[in-house]
Design goal:
alpha+beta; 1 helix; single chain; globular; 5-stranded antiparallel sheet; 5 strands
């Protein structure tokens, strides 16, 4: 297994989500509070890598952290609904 690397602008990532090969590129990395990356699914002509953008902002709140995730540029309402459900599920505590 290759060693982990630190995300940096123009760096790429690859993540399989339930058999869906999500791919993208880091646009902004501002530790420890913000990361922005492109998002899409390899092999999906209707939703290719790089076609949407995800921004994650972390804000301290006492002993906890508030996570604000914004996913922009989803091509259809169906994509918006499915990604909202997915992000909600994967971010649930």
């Amino acid at each position: 297994m290759p060693p982990c690397s630190t995300p940096a602008p123009a760096g790429t990532f690859s993540l399989d989500v339930r058999g869906n090969p999500a791919r993208g590129e880091f646009v902004a990395v501002e530790p420890p509070h913000r990361v922005v990356f492109t998002w899409g699914i390899e092999g999906r002509g209707d939703f290719p890598p790089g076609c949407s953008t995800v921004e994650v902002v972390l804000q301290p709140d006492g002993d906890e952290t508030v996570v604000t995730l914004t996913h922009r540029g989803l091509p259809t309402e169906d994509h918006r609904r499915s990604h909202q459900a997915g992000w909600t599920e994967f971010l649930a505590c």
